[in-house]
Specification:
alpha+beta, ten-stranded antiparallel beta sheet, 25% helix, Chorismate_C, Anth_synth_I-like
Length: 436
């Protein structure tokens, strides 16, 4: 439900070069508490405070978000002197992967600072203290790890079972995307900004995000909209660094892999087929490229299109999200049948892992990624039913639940799949441990 029913005033002003906030990195402007972030290569949006909030769940979560944002957008009195995408009121969004269970959240900050094309601005909603002092960032102390709801051995078993299902029980299934989680306890209270700073430093080409306690650095852009232009980056097919192999050799291996190429082609094709229903023009490259990150290499395809007139309106992006999520890259092939198998094989609640995350504005613009390489900040008891099973309970420190996953196909090797998700957990583990 919404946290406000009153009219709201939103003011956007350009931050001048004489303002000390002009040249500081966006993430360094966050005062603490519950940060909101969508930053890549130094540009994007950060926010704090809460002017309005929606919590929703179930199959209608996208429709609920659309209706709420459309209604709330009509109650803003907007004074915007900049006029770029992301100016004026913005809702940071994080939606659950599955209809049941999982809670989705949209948060409208009281203060938003953004930067695009070298122009920096500040938006305030109501009368917040925009000059709030930025508290020092505190490290989390000692980090210890323990099994999550699906341990490494449990993940290996799930992969083995998925391979059996695809080979013997349901041969029409070509791919199932499974996830693994890991619990990290910290000896000191967790400052979410510590993770964000470290992630941004090591993965500047990814989108560093924080929404309602879900933090990460994702390389995958589900949908971006600027006016009538729409864009998506599809990732599917992965290799990771191994001793004796340099990046060029790994990239050549990835491009030559029939397994990875087939997996990627289906993901790109299925996304394009859905998106085409919203577009008058759509460009899908025939060949993927290789996206190189510190911990893995991916096959990537950037899809670009022009929206048809019927896709207009402030909530058009949310309507498109409902249609394209989940993609084959994070669900499987064919996607609906694969997603039904995920809950059976994993036996855990993913929450908002692999769900849409990003921001939308009242003009219909926005950037929404897929919540990958991420961690969910949990309460002191971490949501565990049995406190004795929650290492570190009551220590006064913090707890986060780390996630990573991979696409499983009929010829997947369970041991290699376990190695892949361990490689994908590195960004969050290193961020927690202060590695830059």
């Amino acid at each position: 439900m919404a946290t406000t029913s009153r009219r709201l005033t939103a003011r956007t002003r350009r931050i001048g070069r004489d303002d000390p906030r002009h040249d500081r990195p966006l993430l360094e402007l966050l005062p603490g508490g519950a940060p909101l972030s969508w930053v890549r290569a130094g540009e994007g949006l950060v926010g704090w405070g809460c002017a309005a909030r929606l919590s929703t769940s179930g199959a209608a979560r996208f429709a609920d978000a659309e209706a709420w944002w459309d209604e709330l957008s009509g109650r803003f009195d907007v004074d915007d002197e900049v006029g770029l995408p992301g100016c004026g009121p913005v809702a940071f969004a994080s939606l659950a992967f599955a209809a049941d269970p999982g809670e989705s959240a949209l948060v409208v900050p009281e203060v938003i600072i953004g930067e695009r094309d070298g122009i920096r601005w500040i938006t305030t909603i109501g009368e917040p203290d925009a000059e709030i002092e930025v508290a020092p960032v505190h490290p989390p102390g000692t980090v210890s790890y323990s099994d999550g709801r699906l341990s490494s051995s449990g993940y290996r078993h799930a992969v083995t079972e998925a391979v059996r299902v695809m080979r013997a029980e349901d041969p029409e299934l070509a791919k199932i995307v499974l996830a693994h989680d890991l619990v990290a306890d910290t000896s000191e209270p967790l400052d979410e900004r510590f993770l964000l700073h470290n992630l941004a430093a090591r993965y500047p080409s990814c989108w560093t995000f924080a929404v309602d306690g879900l933090l990460g650095a994702t390389p995958e852009l589900l949908l971006e909209r600027q006016g009538c232009a729409v864009r998506s980056r599809v990732l599917a097919g992965t290799v990771w660094p191994r001793e004796g192999r340099d990046d060029d050799e790994l990239a050549a291996e990835l491009l030559a892999s029939a397994k990875n190429r087939s997996e990627h082609a289906y993901a790109a094709r299925s996304l394009a087929e859905t998106l085409r229903g919203f577009c008058s023009e759509l460009d899908v490259p025939e060949e993927p490229r290789v996206l190189r990150l510190r911990n893995v290499l991916h096959l990537a395809t950037d899809v670009e299109g022009k929206l048809a007139d019927s896709a207009g309106g402030a909530a058009g992006l949310l309507s498109m999200l409902a249609a394209v999520h989940p993609t084959a890259a994070v669900g499987g092939t064919p996607t609906r049948a694969a997603v039904r198998r995920i809950a059976q094989l994993e036996g855990m609640d993913r929450g908002r892992y692999a769900g849409p995350v990003g921001w939308i504005d009242t003009g219909g613009n926005g950037e929404i990624g897929i919540a990958l390489r991420c961690a969910q900040v949990e309460d002191a008891d971490g949501g565990w039913e049995d406190d004795s099973a929650a290492p570190g309970s009551g220590r006064g420190g913090g707890r986060v639940r780390l996630f990573a996953g991979g696409g499983i196909v009929p010829d997947s090797d369970p041991d290699l799949e376990v190695a892949e998700v361990e490689a994908k957990l590195l960004p969050i583990r290193e961020a927690l441990e202060g590695v830059r």
